[in-house]
Design brief:
Helices cover 42% and strands 17% of the residues. It contains 14 helices and eight strands. An eight-stranded mixed β-sheet has the order 2-5-4-3-1-6-7-8. Helix 3 crosses helix 6. The protein starts with a helix and ends in an 8-residue tail after the last helix.
Length: 324
């Protein structure tokens, strides 16, 4: 009798793990089915499509793919907040229209200044500081700043379905990487805690840096000049430089991710490319072709022809944010 009871206990202990849905925030539909079928095809040693763990590389864009990106990229909001604080301490610092617009929180005016204005704001807030101090500054900002619509910390606006997908892939032997146009040091300040993705698995845009002794301490200093833009065609280049392998799965949300998905799905063997389509104005935002951030035109028009899966946020995500 004792052995029988133990047997039954073991069955009930094991069964929930074996049958649990790894993607509970995904509604049953085309995207969830595609993901599950793909994972099954590359992890079953009995299948011809089997891929060894060493080849199971999955890459994800960050802004608009793993966390929200409205009203503008969160990194730009960080830069604007930094300029505002600097200007409050020293009004003479606000010498240009771009810096004045940033300090005033006038996103529309700042965007009207074009790339030059944006780069100026980013340059002053991201340079002449050690990497360690910069990342500490980002963490402090994340702990105190609040999103204007949701009144939540910015790193609370991560997508619950994507957190589940990241965990699911890692559980079956995938290595997960972030490949984003955002600044690499900005992202490394929070990706470990937000996504369980360590700093060494983050590929992003970067400013030039140099080694320097600062007050007797060896530091890596950030300089006011762009070293590499990890966007569009730069993403495959960044992946090759960092990982040295072509991924078999890539997820993005904008035309800035087109080349990353194109390169990923052009390889031999099983491949999966996916684009998050922002269609939910009630729980998040609805935008694509005319958006000033996360613009999605080419991906919508050509992605399905290339076999990519378009993820409809409104219909396919039962939950958007963890706090929903």
């Amino acid at each position: 009798m004792t052995r029988f009871v133990l047997f039954i206990a073991l069955v009930f202990a094991i069964t929930p793990v074996a049958t649990a849905d790894p993607l509970p925030s995904w509604n049953d539909g085309a995207s969830k089915t595609r993901i599950m079928d793909f994972v099954a095809s590359v992890t079953d040693p009995a299948k011809e499509t089997y891929v060894t763990p060493a080849g199971r590389i999955a890459v994800f864009d960050n802004d608009g793919t793993l966390w929200a990106e409205k009203p503008v990229y969160f990194q730009l909001i960080y830069a604007m907040d930094w300029v505002r604080e600097k200007g409050a301490a020293d009004p003479a610092f606000l010498k240009t229209d771009a810096l004045k617009a940033a300090a005033a929180g006038d996103i529309k005016k700042l965007m009207a200044g074009g790339e030059k204005a944006l780069l100026e704001v980013v340059a002053v807030s991201h340079s002449n500081i050690s990497v360690a101090d910069f990342e500490d500054s980002v963490r402090t900002w994340l702990a105190t700043a609040r999103h204007p619509r949701f009144d939540k910390p910015y790193d609370a606006l991560v997508y619950q379905p994507m957190l589940e997908l990241l965990r699911y892939l890692r559980d079956v032997g995938f290595s997960t990487y972030i490949v984003s146009g955002g600044g690499v040091h900005f992202m490394r300040a929070f990706t470990d805690t937000a996504y369980n993705i360590p700093a060494e698995n983050v590929i992003g845009s970067r400013v030039a840096t140099k080694y320097e002794i600062v007050e007797g301490v060896a530091e890596i200093m950030k300089l006011p000049e762009i070293d590499f833009i990890n966007d569009k065609a730069g993403k495959p280049v960044g992946i090759d430089s960092k990982i040295g392998k072509r991924p078999i799965l890539a997820v993005g949300n904008s035309d800035g991710d087109f080349q990353m998905l194109q390169w990923t799905t052009s390889g031999e063997g099983p491949r999966l490319g996916m684009l998050v389509h922002h269609t939910d104005a009630e729980r998040e935002w609805a935008y694509d072709r005319d958006s000033h951030v996360g613009q999605l035109v080419k991906g919508l028009d050509e992605g399905p022809k290339l076999g990519w899966q378009i993820i409809d946020m409104k219909t396919e995500w039962a939950k958007v944010f963890p706090f929903d």
